[in-house]
């Protein structure tokens, strides 16, 4: 059996290496990735993706926006019995094209069942994200 922390480490490494396909075997076919905060103040989550293909496509799209990402100050909390891994970290990002810095605080929740990631939930400072989104708007 794989240590649950390994799933989260591989996910973060795939983003740092800009290779989301490298984690393709880890998500369950019906995995859900959600960003539950709203970036516009409304009650709806910013993103809810269902299915391995949708999640990998979303992560692949991020690699076109991001020139470089480093996950700093990682703190892992693992509950083996519940199949849950929580990761607190700081994202240090340089945007593709402009090279502009984007730094945010993140909390990830991974739920692992039967050796596959069932849920990826990402929390970040929505004010920081909203600032990024407005700077990218045409």
TrEMBL record:
Isomerase listed as a keyword: yes
InterPro entries, sorted: NTF2-like_dom_sf (IPR032710), SnoaL-like (IPR037401)
Start and end residues of each SnoaL-like domain: 9-118
Keywords assigned: Isomerase
Gene Ontology molecular function: isomerase activity
Keyword Protease among UniProt keywords: no
Name recorded for this polypeptide: Ketosteroid isomerase-like protein
Organism from which the protein derives: Catenuloplanes indicus
């Amino acid at each position: 059996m794989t240590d649950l922390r390994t799933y989260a480490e591989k996910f973060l490494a795939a983003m740092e290496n800009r290779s989301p396909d490298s984690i393709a075997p880890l998500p369950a076919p019906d995995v859900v990735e959600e960003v539950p905060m709203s970036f516009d103040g409304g009650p709806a989550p910013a993103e809810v993706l269902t299915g391995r293909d949708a999640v990998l496509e979303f992560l692949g799209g991020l690699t076109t926006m991001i020139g470089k990402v480093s996950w700093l100050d990682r703190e892992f909390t693992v509950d083996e019995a519940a199949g849950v891994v929580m990761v607190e970290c700081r994202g240090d990002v340089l945007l593709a094209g402009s090279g502009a810095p984007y730094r945010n605080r993140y909390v990830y929740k991974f739920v692992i069942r039967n050796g596959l990631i069932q849920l990826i939930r990402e929390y970040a400072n929505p004010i920081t994200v909203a600032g990024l989104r407005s700077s990218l708007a045409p």
